[in-house]
Each structure stands twice: as C-alpha cells, then as structure tokens.
Amino acid sequence: MFDNTHAHITTWVIALILFIVALGLHNAGKQKGMKVVQMILRLFYLLIILTGVLMFFKHQGIDPALYGIKALVGIWVIAMFEMILVRMNKGKGTGIFWVQLIIAFIIVLYLGLRLPLGLHPFA
Ligand code: HEM
Fold first, then answer.
1. Where are the membrane-spanning stretches (predicted)?
2. Domain for residue 122, yes or no?
C-alpha cells in the first residue's frame, strides 16, 4: 500500500467506472439508482485519497513539489466528478466542469506516471 501503486490504481479505476455508471443511470432517468451509486462513489473518493496520502507521506521527500502538485490535481479530479454529478441532479450546466475534468485527468495521469513509483511510460 505504501510502496506500490496497485491499491491506488484500483481505487481510481473503480471510481471512474462508478462515475460512468452514475452518468448512465442519470441519463436513463433512474435517479434512485444513481443516488446509490453516487454514495458508493463517495466512499471511493476517500479510498483514493487514503491510498494517495499513504504513498505521499512515505515518498514525497523525493520531489516534494511534484508530489504536492500530483496530490492537488488528484483532489481536483475528484472535485470535478462530484460537481458534475451534483449539478446534473439539480439540472444545472456542467460544461465548464467537463473541460476541467478532462484537463485535470490528463495532468494527473501524466504526473502519476512520471513520479518514481509504479509505471514509467514517459521516463
Ligand atoms: C481520481 C484521482 C486520481 C487519479 C486518476 C490518480 C492517478 C494516479 C496515477 C496514474 C498514478 C501512477 C501510478 C503508477 O505509476 O503506477 C498515481 C500515483 C500516485 N498518486 Fe494518484 N491519482 C488520483 C488521486 C490522488 C490523490 C488525491 C493523491 C494524494 C492525496 C494521490 C497521490 C498519489 C501518489 C503519492 C502517487 C505515487 C507517485 C509515485 O511516486 O509514483 N493521487 N496516481
């Protein structure tokens, strides 16, 4: 959990799937089902942060600035998941949050893969 990225990757991949399922249920008009998925998704936000923080505190000394930015952008992705679903439920516009989600997701993948643990396609 502290020295490899497996648990962290598992949590954010499941969160991404739950986010897509929540969107699908919303579009199908199944609001009750969507609410349940949204609650489970919120639990996964906590697990993403927990697994990220555990690696962060053990390894951030290697490159504190980049680790700090990685953590903040990770929180930004989670915030956009939440904003999109909440605003969708209220019937409000989500365009600007989708733009931010895509930008933040690209940055978090790039930073995560550049940092020393786990996979290094860019190194
Ligand atoms: C949805 C949000 C997030 C996504 C998509 C994401 C994605 C990733 C990816 C792709 C990696 C690299 C895995 C590898 O190289 O095997 C990674 C590593 C990491 N993430 Fe996240 N992450 C997210 C949220 C967070 C948060 C909130 C934190 C901190 C609070 C965090 C801290 C870390 C740390 C410390 C690493 C290890 C960096 C290293 O040394 O290689 N992540 N993340």
1. 6-28, 40-59, 65-85, 97-117
2. no
